[in-house]
Write a structure and sequence with these properties.
Ig_E-set, 354 residues, alpha+beta, NXPE family member 1-like
């Protein structure tokens, strides 16, 4: 009896690991077989008898990709016919998403009346040419508030990164005013400018004029921050250019680099360089996608007059100018064609508010 117990213990000791390995290999083989079967393959339905619809209520997590194994378990509990496509909250449709369009984008929450000296907000909803809402930000908008008497201010645009934008205006005068909103660039153009054009060498080209006595020479100049270069005239100034250097080709007639007398734009070369940098992207810089006012603007609002004391009280709340001050929602406004009123800060001298 004792020998039998010892042999049984030895059998269990050696047999259990072997059985565990066999079970693991079998489970792996089944998993690989299931994994090789695509979701919409008829063989899946024949093998697992999937004849029921998978509804959102039965689907445990809407963001999981269905496969033959988990679909089999869910379908057993749900009656009804087989549903096409992915179950749960997955949407199935065919559509197009275009660039932000000035024709379909809208301006909303425009108040009929505001008070002089009041900050107010309007909303921009970006839409593409198919009138589909854009679900991303990054568009470049320019918004202005103007009056016939020369009053003018720019709106502060805040991007909510979901296709909507808040625009804040300060009403610095009374009377009727117009709100204009211009789509300067859609977000795709902004991305191209920031990540491609901005990092390109020699975006702007100048002409350097060298003179000494009767000798004159004109050469090409560019700005560079890093090398390499060879045999160039280097013009630098730590307070004007920082680490950037103006490089000019060597002048002719034996003129030296310090004989430079003027630098001016090479407009012909600038236009050529712009064409090179925008090759294949011309549609982003012309037509419907470049500097177009929204179709439903201008919007007209009425700015009610306020008392002089209220306006003076508001102006006295503007902080005194200090370094590194935060940027306000409105930097200021033109009261007329000649008078600028700053809302960012005021000088330490007594301010004339009249």
């Amino acid at each position: 009896m004792r020998r039998i117990r010892i042999r049984f213990r030895l059998f269990v000791l050696f047999a259990m690991p072997v059985l565990g390995v066999i079970l693991m290999l079998g489970y792996s083989a089944l998993s690989l077989a299931d994994r090789d079967l695509p979701w919409n393959d008829p063989a899946v339905h024949m093998k697992y008898r999937v004849h029921h619809a998978v509804t959102p209520a039965a689907w445990p997590s809407f963001n999981l990709i269905p496969n033959a194994r988990n679909t089999r378990n869910i379908a057993r509990r749900v009656p009804g016919p087989v549903a096409k496509g992915l179950p749960g909250r997955w949407l199935h449709q065919r559509g197009n998403m275009g660039l932000t369009s000035f024709r379909t984008s809208t301006l909303s929450l425009v108040p009929a009346t505001v008070k002089e000296g009041q900050m107010f907000r309007v909303m921009i909803e970006a839409r593409d040419q198919n009138n589909r809402p854009r679900n991303m930000g990054g568009d470049f908008w320019c918004a202005t508030l103007t009056t016939k008497g020369g009053g003018y201010t720019a709106g502060r645009v805040l991007d909510h990164s979901n296709g909507s934008y808040s625009v804040y205006f300060f009403a610095g005068w009374s009377g009727t005013a117009n709100i204009d909103v211009t789509l300067v660039h859609p977000s795709e153009t902004v991305d191209y400018l920031v990540h491609t054009v901005w990092h390109a060498y020699d975006r702007i080209v100048w002409l350097g004029r060298f003179e000494e006595g009767d000798k004159k020479s004109t050469t090409t100049c560019v700005l560079r921050r890093g090398g390499p270069w060879t045999g160039k005239c280097e013009l630098s100034h730590p307070y004007a250019l920082g680490k950037t250097v103006l490089l000019c080709d060597q002048p002719a007639h034996g003129l030296k680099c310090d004989s430079i007398v003027a630098v001016y734009n090479n407009n012909t070369r600038i236009r050529e360089r712009a064409s090179e940098l925008t090759a294949g992207k011309e549609h982003l810089f012309q037509g419907d996608y470049y500097s177009r006012k929204l179709k439903d603007t201008p919007k007209t609002i009425n700015i009610a007059n306020t008392t002089t004391s209220n306006r003076d009280h508001l102006m006295r709340q503007i902080p005194v100018c200090e370094p590194d001050q935060p940027r306000p929602l409105s930097s200021g406004y033109w009261r007329d064609s000649e008078t600028w009123v700053s809302l960012a800060c005021r000088s330490r001298q007594k301010m004339n508010i009249s």
